[in-house]
Amino acid sequence: MRQSKTLIPTLKETPADADATSHKWLLRAGYIRQNFSGVYSFLPLGKKVLDKIEAIIREEMDAIGANEMLMPALQSADLWKETERWDAMGDELIRLKDRHNRDFVLGPTHEEIATSLIRDEVKSYKQLPLTIYQIQTKYRDERRPRFGLLRGREFIMKDAYSFHATDESLDERYQQMYQAYTRIFNRLGLNFRSVIADAGAMGGKDTHEFMALAEIGEDTIAYSSESDYAANIEMAEVLDTYQFSTEEQKELAKVDTPNQKTMQEVADFLEHDLDQGMKSLLFKADDQYVLVVTRGDHEVNEIKLKHHLHANDVELVDEDKTFELMNVGFGSIGPIGVAEDIKVICDYAVKSMANATCGANEEGVHYINVNPTRDLHDTEYADLRFVSEGDPSPDGKGVIKFAKGIEIGQVFKLGRFYAEKLAANYLNQQGKAETLTMGCYGIGVSRTLAAIVEQYHDDRGITWPVHLAPYQVHLLVLNNKPEQRELAEEIYQQLTDAGFDVLFDDRNERAGVKFADSDLIGIPYRITVGKKASEGIVEFKVRQTNEQDECHQGELVDYLNEVLN
Amino acid sequence: MRQSKTLIPTLKETPADADATSHKWLLRAGYIRQNFSGVYSFLPLGKKVLDKIEAIIREEMDAIGANEMLMPALQSADLWKETERWDAMGDELIRLKDRHNRDFVLGPTHEEIATSLIRDEVKSYKQLPLTIYQIQTKYRDERRPRFGLLRGREFIMKDAYSFHATDESLDERYQQMYQAYTRIFNRLGLNFRSVIADAGAMGGKDTHEFMALAEIGEDTIAYSSESDYAANIEMAEVLDTYQFSTEEQKELAKVDTPNQKTMQEVADFLEHDLDQGMKSLLFKADDQYVLVVTRGDHEVNEIKLKHHLHANDVELVDEDKTFELMNVGFGSIGPIGVAEDIKVICDYAVKSMANATCGANEEGVHYINVNPTRDLHDTEYADLRFVSEGDPSPDGKGVIKFAKGIEIGQVFKLGRFYAEKLAANYLNQQGKAETLTMGCYGIGVSRTLAAIVEQYHDDRGITWPVHLAPYQVHLLVLNNKPEQRELAEEIYQQLTDAGFDVLFDDRNERAGVKFADSDLIGIPYRITVGKKASEGIVEFKVRQTNEQDECHQGELVDYLNEVLN
Questions:
Q1: What top-tier enzyme class does this entry carry (chains A, B) (predicted)?
Q2: Do B73 and A507 touch (CB under 8 A)?
């Protein structure tokens, strides 16, 4: 393609609204343009990379026997009301009405549509298992769209849905999908981790997220320094490996702590470290009030709390309500002498604390010398806190480290949640109706494109992996001298005839502009026709490594065949 | 692909809502399913055909140097207000609001987005001409979605936009697009006509529609019996080739025609043919009242009237208003003695009428023996009527015939309408800002799929052209006998290894079901493993022609290579 005939609007300056590295380079190198907040156009270069990513995804989905189809973005609200996601999705769900005032949504995912299709078309166990997928545009009205393609309102996803008669069949498909995702992200050249994730409210069981490692990532991954263990920080288990102190247990006593509210204030006032304090927080878990106690330097993980209590909903009780229930404010609540209708649970770390401090359930008063195994009664211990860097890895190998990740994919055993809501049954071998079980499997396609740029760039622009770059070769001609123009035209013809995908910068621009644009765009191999054109000699440069060399026109095809294959 | 592992839900009966031939077969053969009125899912077979159609379109667009990109479906209402299409599109435009109560539309086309992109990114004549295109999902809230994929609310289009400095450049691109469209529809195997069409209200100039011929078509094409002339019936010119009568002109006279309202009633009452009456209709063209006169057997073509008067809007005046203006009702208005502020125009055919009848502008009175060249004064003559079958073709070759067509594509010289509304300028060679001129070029991709089925079916199902079929070969095994199963598995492996795209009906179904499904689906070549399996002999059948033959397993690859290449 001649650069003069296509649209690659590079920018010298970084646009003010570019709030992520990938966003900056994709805008500056002319791959995308924002239409409005969270909605983008893919310009010709962006579309070419998108196609290459999609082709890899398709190959791997087809290889495991998933069936590509195409479902609509416009969805009737009725199905969403049946699954109760009409309410559950809140403002993120884009809603509209047609000319007859009927409600519709723009699909953020397609569980409803896919399940209702299979409900209507699959009748027998003989037709199962069945996996369908699509690559299609999704909609989500983000409160704060940001980071370019990483968090948009209109975006491209690959979403797959598998339908099964048995849990074993689902397990098998889940593993196949997991392996296919691993192959896809490896082929895309991404530095990624698959992490244990939270199955959330949709009644699912196992789920893994695939995270591309990147500073801009909005998720924290807890991974082992020595094994392949990795989990979303919300899900990373903390083992009960705390050692009991050998310190002598002192006598429990009350002390005045006037106006000391926070853990830090109390610790400073009583002149001990933060980890000698016991932090007590009152939660409402469905209809039950629960006092949760952690060590002062630890943070309660509400997802763990929810799972431990098998609760649908967990929320912190506000100070007024706390006062009403416990007759004392936030600063001085504690686990000793709590009313019977309030359940007390402590994080494992609390059990081994010695001579610790906690609120005494009297305003401005704390207990000191609390020894939980001695002083707390009717108390459960559980893993309730967020993991910290340096904690032992739950698989027993190495210690936990943190990294930031961009969620690019998720595999999810949905189970029977949607099938039950939508009455999606099949007839088993005995002719009896049973509920289908399901998996769903997503890849954020446009987000993955941005994640690749987060990992493949330098200070001059994008440095695409060879097989994802919009073109294989960038051919530059430095000026309008006839010998340069002629040689460049010859080479363009020669390489195109040999089957290479070439972008030919034939524009009437200064050499400096062409070099800068070429670095921005990031095509892996650059051929520059310059001063030595009359000798048939050109410059050959590798974008990722900056290696460069002179090369005779006659050697180009062989050389390119060598580096590209 | 094994048929047991994919989703091809064939139907024995035609669904009640299938209101077009293509709709019926696409539903029955399991290519599509309706999600709700006017919105469809493409099942695996449908998606495969869609991909093949899209690939042909892409090849031809790329071959003429159009640049593929991808614009969003979600569009800010602001641009639509700037071009005034926010109002002009009426209820067909799907509107929505985001969480911040801002207005959006779901794009029915992308002139606004494309023009604003080029306005922002293209600055100089050096970057022109430039053509962009996309294959993307469009939305239109049809009052009455029908005919399956032919008139839906969510549908797939290829839309291209070209931007030019000069009219000559636009003319050149228009011709290239016209040729590319001709190649595309030829490659898709369609029986189509390109027809002269109406440029409509958007200020455009030349435009051609590409019509697939089909009985279900909502457009009437007027074409020549002897040349390649074809036009939308709205646009087909009628030449002024009428012969004056040799009949003696009689004296103009008034006759009473009490209660005779319609042309037919008056003709019967006065005992003459319909074509001896002059039909007068009062229109309002912008702010001007115009009395339009045609022969009694002809119909006024409002588009011709609008063009003749250079009016933006033309509408028939109702009877009350007619009475107010002319002091007489519909039945008795006529062109003689009309008030000066009402313009009179007659269709060419009126000029040569002899001793004709027209309303006398008195209730229940008509003139007889009207001879227009003698009795009508200050009257213009023009081509104002719809063409009829048998009229001479405007190119002088043959006579006009009618056919029904499905509009599958349109090429359109938009000119400067959008560029002016959106201030899309470029700097010319003198550094002076000038307005861009534009073309736009659409293909209804999902509609084209349906149009192909309208032309390729028989009474048992779809009869795909070879290169558009979802698979090349349909392999059937008739029962579960080991020798049949084994041979079928061997052939499946053999053909797949040889690179053929095979659908293998490995289901545990009766032979009759398999044959019926295979006919419905319409894969061009069918191989049936049946009774002679133990001898390695199979049946080979061509779907379109029903030719069938026996064939030894060992000959299959060669035979398929021969028929497929």
A1: ligase
A2: no
Asked if the Cβ–Cβ distance from A154 to B73 is below 8 Å, we say: yes
> How many CA atoms are closer than 13 Å to the CA of B158, on its beta-carbon side?
32
State the DSSP code for B144: S
Are A164 and A308 found together in one domain?
Answer: no
- How confident is the model over B484-516, as pLDDT tens digits? 999 999 999 999 999 999 999 999 999 999 999
CA A312 to chain centre: 23
- pLDDT tens-place string over residues A406-446: 999 999 999 999 999 999 999 999 999 999 999 999 999 99
Q: Domain tally for chain A?
A: 3
Whether residue B184 sits in one domain with residue B67: yes
Which chain B residues are Cβ-neighbours of A4 within 8 angstroms? 126-127
Give the Cα separation of A108 and A94 in Å (integer).
8
Q: Whose CA is closest to A277, among A237, A325, A331?
A: A331
CA angle at B390 for the pair B388 and B395, rounded to the nearest 5°: 90
Q: Is A154 in CB contact (< 8 Å) with chain B?
A: yes
A117/B contact by beta carbon, under 8 A: yes
**Does residue A271 lie in a domain region?**
yes
CB pairs under 8 A between A and B: 147
* pLDDT tens string A79-132: 999 999 999 889 999 999 999 999 999 999 999 999 999 999 999 999 999 999
Among the partner-chain residues B67, B76, B508, the one whose CB lies closest to the CB of A126 is B508
Closest partner residue to A76 (CB to CB) among B36, B42, B134 is: B36
Mean pLDDT in residue range B68-85:
96
| A277 occurs within a structural domain | yes
Domain range for B78:
46-236+402-452
Whole-angstrom distance, CA of residue A210 vs CA of residue A230: 10
Are A137 and A200 contained in the same domain?
yes
Say if A459 falls within a structural domain: no
- State the nearest Cα–Cα gap between A520 and chain B, in angstroms: 17
Which residue is closest to A42 within chain B, CA to CA?
A: B70
